[in-house]
User: Fold this.
Amino acid sequence: MAFSRRKILSSLAIALAVASGMATAKECVLPIADGGDVEPSAASLIGKIVRAVPGQVMLKVDGKSKPVRIVVAPDTELFTVYGGGIDAAELAPGQHVLVWFDGCALPRHAEPRAAVLQVCSLAAEPCPT
Assistant:
C-alpha cells in the first residue's frame, strides 16, 4: 500500500509541476488595429518584403539566407504600425513589416500563414524602434 501511495503522490507532484508551468507560460497576444489596452506579444518575424504577389509575400529576415514565404490569407489582419488598415494590394517590395502567426511562432510543419501583418510604412521606411 505504501508503494501505491508514493506512486500516487509522485504522479500528483508531476501533474502540479506541469500545470504550474502551463499557467506561467506566456500567452500569445496579437496586435489590433488602432492599438488597445493590451500590449501585444513580440512579432514572430520582422523583415523586409522582397516580393509581393496576391496571397503571399517573400520576406528577407535577418539571420536567414533565403527569403521566407508568408501566406497573406483573406482573414490576415493588415494595418500599419500607426493603426490604419491597408489592402493586400498595397504590399510592395522594400516595405518593412512585422508578422505574427497564430500562437506567435513560425509554424514548423504547416504553411506560414500570417495572422497579423503590420507594415511599418507604405514607403520603404524601417520599423520604429
Notes: The CA atoms of residues 44 and 105 lie 5 Å apart. Residues 15-25 have pLDDT under 50 and may be disordered.
